[in-house]
Amino acid sequence: MEIMGREEKIKLYENPLFEELTDGSIRPGGFQLTMKALEYGDFYSKSKLLDLGCGMGATVDFIQQHYDYTCAGLDASPLLVEKGKKKYGSLNLIEGKAEALPFPTASFDGVLMECSFSLMESKEKVLQEVHRTLKPQGCLMLTDMYQRQQELMAVDGNAGIESCLMSPMRLKDLDHMLQNNGFNVELMEDETHHLHSMVASMIMNFGSAADFWKMITHQPVDDRWTPCNSKVKMGYFLCVARKRN
């Protein structure tokens, strides 16, 4: 965690408490939104998919269990990839950076990024790599946090927590970025009720959202900020975009 000049941060997506809270999916909406995204993607039998920012591979396993698709997962966290390999065994999970995908051009029919795009260091480069590795008319499916107010605001809060809560975009900025990197946006849908459900679960299980964050960080949370009282109005979205050839 980043305290008194230390550089190490608490990675929310690596925390067992957050995994437990979200039934292993580590994001609002869970597999319900995964299924919705895949439905809009309209994939054919034997389609090849990539879960980018796959964590331990819960979505990869879900897709392999419930769909006639081939799915690989890539994540930058060696801890999560190793845990996923131990938990799921035969899944194709790879440690790597989204900014330099270790796959040939036109490898995949679809790419999922579920609550992971906001964590990417170079979003433009990530979209270029996704565009490269998608087949013609390939589909990108995004679920993530976004800012609901008109003016983009900096999230000033507990910098010791690394999560998608710290760098949400506005939907119009995301739309512009996708268009500039070779994608046509086919769906942009608000799914904030899933975020509300996750916060409600925090309260039911831990007494309050602030108490949950205190358990994660093992320190008092700055009263100026928690995911529930931030001045930045948080929302959650589902976006489906098609590769423009």
UniProtKB/TrEMBL annotation:
<keyword id="KW-0489">Methyltransferase</keyword>
<dbReference type="Pfam" id="PF08241">
    <property type="entry name" value="Methyltransf_11"/>
</dbReference>
<dbReference type="GO" id="GO:0008757">
    <property type="term" value="F:S-adenosylmethionine-dependent methyltransferase activity"/>
</dbReference>
<keyword id="KW-0808">Transferase</keyword>
<dbReference type="InterPro" id="IPR013216">
    <property type="entry name" value="Methyltransf_11"/>
</dbReference>
<dbReference type="GO" id="GO:0032259">
    <property type="term" value="P:methylation"/>
</dbReference>
<feature type="domain" description="Methyltransferase type 11">
    <location>
        <begin position="50"/>
        <end position="141"/>
    </location>
</feature>
<protein>
    <submittedName>
        <fullName>Methyltransferase domain-containing protein</fullName>
    </submittedName>
</protein>
<dbReference type="InterPro" id="IPR029063">
    <property type="entry name" value="SAM-dependent_MTases_sf"/>
</dbReference>
